Input
Amino acid sequence: MSKIRIGMIGGGPGAFIGGVHRIALNMDGDFDLVAGAFSSSPEKSAQTGQELGLDPARVYGSWAEMAEAEAALPEDVRVQAVSIVTPNHVHHGPTVEFLKRGFHVICDKPLTVNSALAQEMLQATVDADCVFALTHNYTGYPMIREARELVRSGGIGKVLKVYAEYLQGWLVDPLEETGQKQADWRTDPARSGPGGALGDIGTHAFNLLEHVSGLKVQRVLAERRSYVPTRQVDDDTMALLEMENGATGTLCASQVCAGMENALRLRIYGSEGGIEWDQEHPNDLRVRWKDKPSEIRRTGNGYLGEHAQSLGRIPAGHPEGYLEGFANIYRAFARAIRGEETALEDPYPTAVDGVRGVQFIETVIQSAEQQAWLEMPQ
Amino acid sequence: MSKIRIGMIGGGPGAFIGGVHRIALNMDGDFDLVAGAFSSSPEKSAQTGQELGLDPARVYGSWAEMAEAEAALPEDVRVQAVSIVTPNHVHHGPTVEFLKRGFHVICDKPLTVNSALAQEMLQATVDADCVFALTHNYTGYPMIREARELVRSGGIGKVLKVYAEYLQGWLVDPLEETGQKQADWRTDPARSGPGGALGDIGTHAFNLLEHVSGLKVQRVLAERRSYVPTRQVDDDTMALLEMENGATGTLCASQVCAGMENALRLRIYGSEGGIEWDQEHPNDLRVRWKDKPSEIRRTGNGYLGEHAQSLGRIPAGHPEGYLEGFANIYRAFARAIRGEETALEDPYPTAVDGVRGVQFIETVIQSAEQQAWLEMPQ
Amino acid sequence: MSKIRIGMIGGGPGAFIGGVHRIALNMDGDFDLVAGAFSSSPEKSAQTGQELGLDPARVYGSWAEMAEAEAALPEDVRVQAVSIVTPNHVHHGPTVEFLKRGFHVICDKPLTVNSALAQEMLQATVDADCVFALTHNYTGYPMIREARELVRSGGIGKVLKVYAEYLQGWLVDPLEETGQKQADWRTDPARSGPGGALGDIGTHAFNLLEHVSGLKVQRVLAERRSYVPTRQVDDDTMALLEMENGATGTLCASQVCAGMENALRLRIYGSEGGIEWDQEHPNDLRVRWKDKPSEIRRTGNGYLGEHAQSLGRIPAGHPEGYLEGFANIYRAFARAIRGEETALEDPYPTAVDGVRGVQFIETVIQSAEQQAWLEMPQ
Amino acid sequence: MSKIRIGMIGGGPGAFIGGVHRIALNMDGDFDLVAGAFSSSPEKSAQTGQELGLDPARVYGSWAEMAEAEAALPEDVRVQAVSIVTPNHVHHGPTVEFLKRGFHVICDKPLTVNSALAQEMLQATVDADCVFALTHNYTGYPMIREARELVRSGGIGKVLKVYAEYLQGWLVDPLEETGQKQADWRTDPARSGPGGALGDIGTHAFNLLEHVSGLKVQRVLAERRSYVPTRQVDDDTMALLEMENGATGTLCASQVCAGMENALRLRIYGSEGGIEWDQEHPNDLRVRWKDKPSEIRRTGNGYLGEHAQSLGRIPAGHPEGYLEGFANIYRAFARAIRGEETALEDPYPTAVDGVRGVQFIETVIQSAEQQAWLEMPQ
Output
């Protein structure tokens, strides 16, 4: 089984998520990274290409140049897929362009910066005969799949309450003023879109909530703040939610909870029991029951559902982490490209999920402005 | 040091909180329970009196009878204080009556069923030359005091985010229809007041939040539900909050989270760090810091502040629980009756706290009706 | 139901365990503390008596004086029981004396300082028509009872491995040189007996292991150290164990693990699953299964066995702690005195347990001297 | 920077650790797997080679054939390093052979099956001008490095107590009788060597203990059992230890603790504090202090020592797991091959560690036979 040739857009010097994508695509040996436009600065792009040992001829100064040049290469040489790991405002352009040229695309989240562009991207994925995957990577965790199977199969009864939160502390000070690259673009609405914490992490919590519950968010009442006065985007968002089945709950996304690292947590309670999951200890899924002791289900065990089992790589007790979850999206992407069958339902997030995330951002922003319950597009 | 003679109103057969109060008043040997009107049924009152080994002559069929009879006894025989552990609608009557007659009163929460009655009770405590304590018992936990000292002294910087929640699951089914005593009165608005989960447990979360943060809730936007269709009070309440200093957050109180026991949790994050506390593991206080490892502060250690230290009874590592926290309110009540000095600020909750709790219930109810942010009375 | 009149031997100024016993006997209102010989110093004894509001005529300067004087009082006035909370070397004298005179006795552990005295005490309990209880208080925790029922009923299969440990850090420095009362007598072999950490806390771990497993320790290979050079007793003991059924394991007791508070932990694994319990979080019992998710069983739930349920006082989620577990021994003692029936098997530890604890101390000491596996008396 | 060409010995169909090594070598893009002798069955070897997309000409039926053939290839084509992931009895042969031919070698643990062979391997690493690394992979965890820096720098004072354990449950039944590949060779002394649980997991605990404490085990008193009667190797080992500085403790390795997954845990206590680490939650390091609250240090934070920081790949709160720890050994191996500088002391385990592990196995076996304290070779 030969490797899939892949190129990368973004991920140059100082990037965080580019490195993550490279590890994720390396992990299972499914891909060979052979080309890249790592930065809008040709020098920086070349530097990263060199560090990665790439052929300099296939390291480009822009994604447009790369699209054209790769398409011109022989079919068994040119990349088959591209990984887009740029700031949010540079998701739409390369996605549409590469899909149009027949390349498979895997793109970081959120899909893009507004609904109109999101719909164009969705249409592009429909029109193209290619695979498009969105790295809502947290869906790649085995215990998230276990929770999903349990909740969607009615295992905890009718869902009544949902609590999703994603709390970080790294932006409690105006880090963007120091020039730190991650803070810089994430707090610039021109690059990140109108949502700050909302877009960066709130969309993860939203996506995970719908993914696991199998329920759509129907109505939202939200509040947004910038606790750092000079900041141009929200660094804190909180919302009351109503789900399509009448369940209610909260969603909180904050980057000013000093001391919090990356606390993405999901809790869903139904008429018979509930599930609790914490991304910082991702191999434990607590399942609560109305009349029985809680259970701790753990990655890698034979008692798990087939979906959760299919996402593990190593035996129980050998902790799998963020990179493995991320790599699961890449593995599913590879399988889809190869046309392999999989028992896994919704094996990777798609543009449909991406559109929904952008709609969530927009609905929350409007709700906060109007201080009113608003309906999500359904 | 002789014991304080105390009587009890409520706490007859099938009661939960009456038994808790009796253990709490027994624990430190400060009180001698010598009289009671344990039930509005004279037979049941007598039965409880007998089980407790009381003189039958001092077991009464009503609190009114008890107030009159005890007042008529010689000063060194009659009770000095009463403990009121009846359903919420029977807090106001005996409190006012006993205070008026010069008895000290300790009363279960919430103070009463509406603001007008609450104000009368507050006035009664002002007019009387007696001690009035309200058993917002969770303030009696040592680590809550530690958190309070830390937060109020600025230890975690400026408070930015607050998350209070109190989740239970015991009312996910219509338990009241089985005649279960606890469910019965708590879901009857005539006895519990207009708030269900809101009054029963939401007020605890609210009280703890203001107690620890030292900040008043200024605005509320809330939502209430009854997930059991036949239920006449809310069994779920959630609210967005804004504190007087601009901090924001959420408060969730639910009794339909199947599998949850008694999950009262408080998290407060400031510009330098945060605190996290979970009532089910009350001897651990997690303190997070912006640039340093988290700490786990634990009951009974010499490194704690003087307030937290004064509330422990046993060395570190010997877990103290709910009953000890409850007993701390009784111990403070006893000290106040005896006029002993204490280093502890706000050693027990008072009618002022009680009024505030009732106002919170009313503001939340109105906000949920109007689907709008409302100001709390300040 | 009238209260049982009880007296106390020991528990004067500066004592720790005396205060614990007083809270434990107060908690359920079963006892009335009416007399005491709180110290071998009559002044100190009087001081404690006064603080407790006792009749000065019934506060004695020695246990011998108390035994004689109380016995001379009218039957309905004199104490019915005594609580012995003195250092270990003063357990034997008052126990034998009070039992002989027809008083019920509850005594702190370890039973006494050597096997010969232990056998005499055991004989005294046999000869007397009185109740004798030993406060191996950790057996009073509800979840210990749950573990016991599960393990003894074969719920985890054949027991294969046992790990008991009791780690503290408070004696890592020569605290006894500061005159600290607790450290002082515990490190003095004349008062504590030959075992230091071994007797003080190792016997708790040993008792709990046999209590929960239902298996006797058969062979021991041990090592003892004094990490504080000037200390006259061990401050650290560790042992390999073989149980009567062939299971093996370890028992570690240390008072020099800096930073450890009171970490008494028990783990037992069988052919089908295992149990894990930590005294510092006593309301959680983790039950592991060979082919199923772990369970977290928690105090106060309806799914627990009847024994565990009978030891709780409050609903699930309201943490019960060390004092409640201790009070469970006193409550069982009260019931035995009153001749009440109980469904609870082995409702409180007895002199038989006490003898076994002393034999464990002696066997460990000999094994450590001989550096050899030794048989425990069976 | 071009990739290092690597080959693999072992890791054919049904292997566990071969897959782990492949992920680990892929993760950072340092290696290109270009050859292999994946099984002693040429068919199985070919099958694995095909699955991995290797050139069939470089997939061999034996390591000996591979050594000869690869050595005959041009320098810029042949492998530069080999990864040996065979059962223990096939570590010595290929290690010596490939080293002799000038290939770098990374080999799974334990080094080999007896001390004589271990010394030969050590000598081979000395004689060769090549890098030899042993995958005691748990040393690759960032928080293990943090613990090591803290302990070795005297941060917790003088080390007094050490507790190492590695508990699993997967061999509680005679799994080897089902033909399960992992159980099969691990319980066969001809392939695994004389130690069962002792060699398979006990050596990991031993290695980690010496690695973190910086202290050598000096004396051992051990006990070994086979709880599955038909089993030819121990499935349970426990030992009392004395370290070179006089600290004492225990080491337990068991594969019959039903319900345990992969519980490798290390605790070390000194005169000022202690460290506690659990492989199943590897990103948390609990640091206890004599007079201060415990700390939770976490992977990826700026407050960590430089060693721990250098081993993380992603920001704090993004859990890193077993595979990342493993990959850290490969990354260090790659750096050593390339001659890159590293600030990391002892960046990977070597044959010296391997010899010590084999000596530990042998000393434990002898001690258990003689039931006596024995000295470890120093």
